[in-house]
Amino acid sequence: MASSSRSAHQEQDATSSAPPAGHGAAHAPETHALRALGSASTDASAALARRMAMNPTDLAAMSHIAYAADPLGPRELSSRLGITPAAMTDVVDRLEAAGHLLRERDTNDRRRVRLLATESANEEVRRELRELLDMLDAITDDFTPTERAAIQRYLAAATDAYRRYAENPEPNP
Q1: pLDDT at position 21, please?
Q2: Distance CA 65, CA 79 (A)
């Protein structure tokens, strides 16, 4: 239920969005809060990898497979992870042997292999993330529909900015 007074989450966010000492204030507080969220998300991913008895590279591979707009092949996945195709073969072999991944021939191009998460892997991830996702869902109860719409717009735009940044690997002059 949304409340008209500031919630504990909002009070905490007002102080936690300040930049860490020594990092200056060149960017908006929301940008610093988003960077802190990214850091916390990295920590949560490491915890998920430990819970699933996976190494971080294997979990990152599964995350890319799960969130890709179109099924990925080993070459695309190795590029996203920044590892060699040979190292990617080892990752795919481990994930397949563990029952997390299936290799499937592309129906349009039989030379191409698509990598798909197994239903059991998807269920395990959902089970392990349920507590975190429930906590995140509960946070939204503190916001009005208008505030939630603004948060969704901000996060969608921030996601787009991260993707555009990732698509341009060239260093700035």
Answers
A1: 55
A2: 13
